[in-house]
Amino acid sequence: MKLLLVRHGETVQNVNKIIQGQSDGELTENGINQTVRLAERLKNAELNQIYSSDLQRTIDTTNAVIKYHDSVKMITDVRLRERYFGNLEGNTFPSDFDWNNLPEGVESNESMYKRAKDFFNDIYKNHSNETVLIVTHGGLLKAFFLIMFNKPVEDFYSWRGIKNTALSIFEIKNQDEIMCRELNSVTHFEDIDEAL
Fold this sequence. Notes:
This protein is α/β, with parallel strands linked by helices. The protein has helices at about 10-15, 30-40, 55-65, 110-125, 140-150, and strands spanning about 1-5, 50, 75, 130-135, 165-175, 175-185. It has a six-stranded mixed sheet.
């Protein structure tokens, strides 16, 4: 399997440092431009299946890519949603927010990892010889990276600064033999004609 992992385009909430979590966000003009450039980068990729979180910011990002892949169906899955932040959603992070001691009502790293692992197991079973694109969120990408690099949940915050529309590419021969080809790449901002 070739697995392409992408974060959604920049949102108004990202710019204003608003916690989106599992609420919908709206792409900025820059975010829309990012999705266009991502789509240009992926236009010649042979994609067999596209999965997206069911939140609007990921659907809008995915729709930009599908313009070049109209024969490929987008399947949304709630397991690809961002971390649930409970009553913090819609607000800025409190000054005393501690990622290592998450407040009550905020989804745990273990839960995020389990969601990502369950989803990965399902798609590997169904697409082991295909190319799959997943459009999701920064938090869930960290969970996927734990799986790809065979790291424990304790390493959840090893990956910081996952950029909007960043592309990561993994080649998976089996679930124990995974090679990273690109990680958090945004070269499509520099050269939209770059070959995949």
